[in-house]
Amino acid sequence: MSVQIIGMIQSQKQSEIQAATGPVIDRAYVRDFAQAHEKSGFDRILVPHHSTGPSAAHTIAYAAGVTERIHFMLAHRPGFVSPTYAARDIASLDQFTGGRLGVHFISGGSDYEQRRDGDYLDHDERYARTDEYLSVLRQVWTAEAPFSHEGKYYRFEDAWSEVKPAQKPHVPIFFGGASEIALDVAARHADIYALWGESLEQVRELTHRVRAKAAANKRKIGFSVSFRPILAETEEKAWARADQILQQAKHLRALQGLTEPGDPQQSEGARRLLAAAKQGARVDQLLWTEIAKLTGARSNSTALVGTPEQVAQALLQYYDLGVETFLLRGFDPLEDARDYGRELIPRLREGVRARQIQIDKAVA
Hints:
12 helices; 364 residues; globular; 4-stranded mixed β-sheet; alpha/beta; TIM Barrel; 8-stranded parallel barrel
């Protein structure tokens, strides 16, 4: 079982400890950010979606033009465009990037975020709509003749797409969401189910449930877990850096008028991270939960803290649970991506190779 490393880029410099600077779309920053990930050995880059932010698809189109090999992951919210149109749009982007596209479908964990774009369905309805949306998408991508559809959320006649994805049978489908209805949708459609950085026990429990649901649908599914590694040459220096990051995050939130901890709103994934945080600031030795607690865990906000070797070994513990994809991004986004390439990613890949050698020897 190989390992896939995903990073994340944004259209301007910002994070929990860095106020947004520069133009909203900073072409030079996007270029440097994407190229840094490619040079650092990442396999794929996520471009996130936000209800007030630039187009993730256009960001990928630009980033693909200034890179050669690295793949991309488009964050896409179902419901704002027709699935027939989205299927053609995504297939076109996959063709123009040379088959380097994956799509992470996000049904939405915040009523407020959804309503900013005019979506007033509640949490469970959003996932029910996503279920139908993905069924239509996959059919458009693979259909050999026009077809009609009449469902609860969508109705059309003779849908057809002249453009098909470069990848067969279609682009990889990443999917997140930890509620029961989200797991059901993932089991029917996802190629890779994405979790935020939970404890080992939480990941063991959730991946077991997803595997069982996927098996009931006669499918197999891969897993991704997201972390915010904090590295230093010694363990003590790494934890000192973590404390500095926490203070910087608190200071920035105060400047923004945010004096109370964030609200997880309708996100079950956020509630799971906060449940991990209730176990303490440090879980499983290296898992650090303070930023998740501070922000309401509204995004992947838990860190693994330590030396590059310690963090690589911690990631390998998740790998041993069947997680073969890791989304790694830092609090100093561009600088950390470069550091991961120098210090962390080679150690993680070497650990995976060593495990595979042991498996091959045992089988021989």
